[in-house]
């Protein structure tokens, strides 16, 4: 098993647009077929997710002037810099 620091599962899920299992803002389990409602700023990648969308764990989130990063102890770290499309 890879250590959390080497794990890119969450980043990969976000970058490939994989359907979240848990809501990134509320941590609620999303049932199949249910529509996910994100705030416009969250959808644009401007708002930091609070929960890991793969396991629903509360993430350690750090907001910076230029973005944010969020860490799930299981699924690794995501930085908003990776998600901003230019
Ligand atoms: Zn996770």
TrEMBL record:
The keyword Metal-binding applies. InterPro entries: BsaP_C (IPR058605). Required for the activity of the biotin synthase BioB. This is Biotin synthase auxiliary protein. It holds the Pfam family BsaP. It comes from Corynebacterium pygosceleis. Residues 59-84 form the Biotin synthase auxiliary protein C-terminal domain. Its cofactor is iron-sulfur cluster. Keywords: Biotin biosynthesis, Iron, Metal-binding. Belongs to the BsaP family.
């Amino acid at each position: 098993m890879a250590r959390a620091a080497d794990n890119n599962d969450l980043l990969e899920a976000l970058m490939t647009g994989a359907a979240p299992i848990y809501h990134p803002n509320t941590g609620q389990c999303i049932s199949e077929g249910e529509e996910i409602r994100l705030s416009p700023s969250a959808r644009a990648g401007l708002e930091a997710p609070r929960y890991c969308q793969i396991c629903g764990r509360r993430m350690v989130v750090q907001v910076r002037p230029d973005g944010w990063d969020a860490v799930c102890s299981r699924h690794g770290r995501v930085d908003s810099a990776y998600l901003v499309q230019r």
